[in-house]
């Protein structure tokens, strides 16, 4: 039985994390695994590609029951954008389809947040976030006429973590838990009928 | 956020298995966890309760990507029955709904297999299988007029393991891989719309 690309990624990442690697090793070896996964856009089942007319969507693809990691499909319709937010755990964002812009913000002396750097991601490219260095950003679909999709990997169950959104002007933070849009996740061991299965 | 019963079970079992327990400990502590899960029949989503008119169904609920364990819903229409088969890994079968009969077979001097014991399981009861002692059985729906459902837990990914069915008369074995009927598994972290979520 041929193993699907998402299963191969989840297995490889689980194996890497079993060694309790440093964040540096996750961002080198784990990044290569994610780059492999997003090298071709032929494996994500249709159900996890659907944009919502009003909000960007977060579809859980796999989460470890002991909260060691999670893999999520983020789907952005034209013009959709996150609030300024943090993650509290390491994260890697791999562009699968379309194009996204991510701006990293840093708190200033007066408490406000300013974007000090901004990057555009094309399919195949990977961004990182880390509470140790750059954890607060705004991500948006950089295309006005099509859906963008990125595959996010975090060192925790991102949809269940209590984290924060920030008012960039006042710096006031508000706690939130993002949740997931989907009640069904892919069966990694039965991809019949899925693309590239 | 309230955790669903299936999530609590999967987390507790993963935590137990992290300690690399003996089979004896799995069959005592793990069994208690399974008994808790099946103590009430109000949590299994409809999609994983559906009988097939011709065959018993195996719906994957959760599998560990490193093949440490799997949790599967087995659904039997009236009159449905497995062939004589083995598992090759430890297993626990918890009756959730209806009633099943399980007969343990042992190979005789002439190579044939004979049922030496047979048990009926009612909701809340747990059976075990083990390659060390009793791994070869036939399970059937013991009710002629309703669906029976049991929740199976194995020390491997049961739908992916190469194992065997046996001709009880000749003892001839044939390898098989059972697979899964479902391409989508429950999102353990979003049970909205599911019973008892
Ligand atoms: Fe983010
Ligand atoms: Fe069996
Ligand atoms: Mg371990």
What attributes characterize this protein structure?
homodimer, 197 residues, alpha+beta, Jelly Rolls, five-stranded antiparallel sheet, three-stranded antiparallel sheet, 2 helices, 11 strands, 15% helix, 33% strand, binds fe (iii) ion, binds magnesium ion, CDO_1 (chains A, B), dioxygenase (chains A, B)
By DSSP (H or I, 4+ residues per run), the number of helices of chain A equals: 2
Instruction: Name every ligand kind in the structure.
Output: fe (iii) ion, magnesium ion
- Fold-level CATH name of chain A: Jelly Rolls
Write the element-wise H/E pattern of chain A from the N-terminal end onward: HHEEEEEEEEEEE
Largest sheet of chain A: 5 strands, antiparallel
Number of domains of chain A: 1
Oligomer: homodimer
Radius of gyration of chain A: 16 Å
User: How much strand of chain A?
Assistant: 25-35%
Count of DSSP E strands of chain A?
11
Name the CATH superfamily classification of chain A: Jelly Rolls
Globally, the shape of chain A reads globular
Which runs of chain A of at least 5 residues are low in confidence (pLDDT < 50)? Answer: none
**What's the N-to-C terminus distance of chain A?**
10 Å
Task: Name the structural class of chain A.
Answer: alpha+beta
For the record, the CATH class of chain A is Mainly Beta
Describe this structure in words.
- Chains A, B: GO terms for molecular function: ferrous iron binding; oxidoreductase activity, acting on single donors with incorporation of molecular oxygen, incorporation of two atoms of oxygen.
- Chains A, B: Fe cation binds at residues 85, 87, 137.
- Chains A, B: This is Cysteine dioxygenase.
- Chains A, B: It comes from Polynucleobacter aenigmaticus.
- 2 copies of one chain form a homodimer.
- The first copy, chain A, is α+β, with helices and mostly antiparallel strands and 197 residues long.
- In chain A, 15% of the residues lie in helices and 33% in strands.
- Chain A has one domain: Jelly Rolls, CATH 2.60.120.
- Chain A has 2 helices and 11 strands, in the order ααβββββββββββ.
- In chain A, strands 1-2-8-3-6 form a 5-stranded antiparallel beta sheet, with helices on one face. Chain A has a 3-stranded antiparallel beta sheet with strand order 5-4-7, with no helix packed on it. Chain A has a two-stranded antiparallel sheet with strand order 9-10.
- In chain A, helix 1 runs antiparallel to helix 2 (23-38).
- The longest helix of chain A is centred in the N-terminal third of the chain and has 16 residues, at 23-38.
- Chain A starts with a helix and ends in an 11-residue tail after the last strand.
- The interface between A and B is medium-sized, with 34 and 34 residues.
- Strand 11 (184-186) of chain A pairs antiparallel with strand 11 of chain B, so a sheet runs across the interface.
- The structure holds fe (iii) ion (2 copies) and magnesium ion.
- One fe (iii) ion binds at residues 85, 87, 137, 139 of chain A.
């Amino acid at each position: 039985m041929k193993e699907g690309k998402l299963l191969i990624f989840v297995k490889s990442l689980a194996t890497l994390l079993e060694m309790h690697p440093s964040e540096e090793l996750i961002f080198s070896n784990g990044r290569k695994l994610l780059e492999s996964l997003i090298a071709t856009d032929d494996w994500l089942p249709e159900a996890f590609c659907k944009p919502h007319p009003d909000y960007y969507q977060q579809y859980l693809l796999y989460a470890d029951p002991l909260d060691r990691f999670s893999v999520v499909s983020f789907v952005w319709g034209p013009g959709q954008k996150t609030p300024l937010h943090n993650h509290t755990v390491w994260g890697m964002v791999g562009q699968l389809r379309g194009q996204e812009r991510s701006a990293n913000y840093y708190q200033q002396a007066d408490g406000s947040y300013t974007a000090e750097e901004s990057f555009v991601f094309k399919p195949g490219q990977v961004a990182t976030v880390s509470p140790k260095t750059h954890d607060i950003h705004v991500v948006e679909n950089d295309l006005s006429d099509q859906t963008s999709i990125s595959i996010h990997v975090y060192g925790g169950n991102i949809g269940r973590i209590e984290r924060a959104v920030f008012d960039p002007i006042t710096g006031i933070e508000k706690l939130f838990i993002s949740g997931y849009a989907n009640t069904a996740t892919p069966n990694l061991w039965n991809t019949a009928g899925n693309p590239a299965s």
